[in-house]
Design a protein that fits this description.
Number of helices: 3
Largest sheet: none
Radius of gyration: 18 Å
Strand content: under 5%
Structural class: mainly alpha
Mean pLDDT: 86
Low-confidence stretches: none
Number of strands: 0
């Protein structure tokens, strides 16, 4: 899952606009706090931070791998099989 962590802190146009309006948060500041806590936890657990690993990009713009189709298919099974069900 490490390859997806960078995406959490990559701002898009909406994030930038909200920060500009004073109602959003600078994701880089959150990233610093998150890394501090996570790196400390990894150190305490004697785990290594993955190095030189692929970092997913573009998910916020709707660019997803083919795996998303399989996940969505699995998640949509029940509503499609039982369209009148009340959840």
């Amino acid at each position: 899952m490490w390859s997806y962590t960078n995406e959490m802190f990559t701002p898009d146009a909406v994030d930038d606009e909200l920060v500009g309006l004073g109602i959003g948060v600078d994701l880089k500041l959150i990233q610093e706090l998150w890394e501090k806590d996570v790196f400390e936890l990894f150190k305490d657990l004697k785990l290594q931070i993955p190095e030189n690993i692929y970092q997913a990009k573009g998910c916020k713009e709707g660019n997803h791998s083919e795996l998303l189709g399989h996940i969505l298919s699995e998640m949509q099974y029940l509503p499609r099989a039982y369209p009148d069900a009340k959840w």
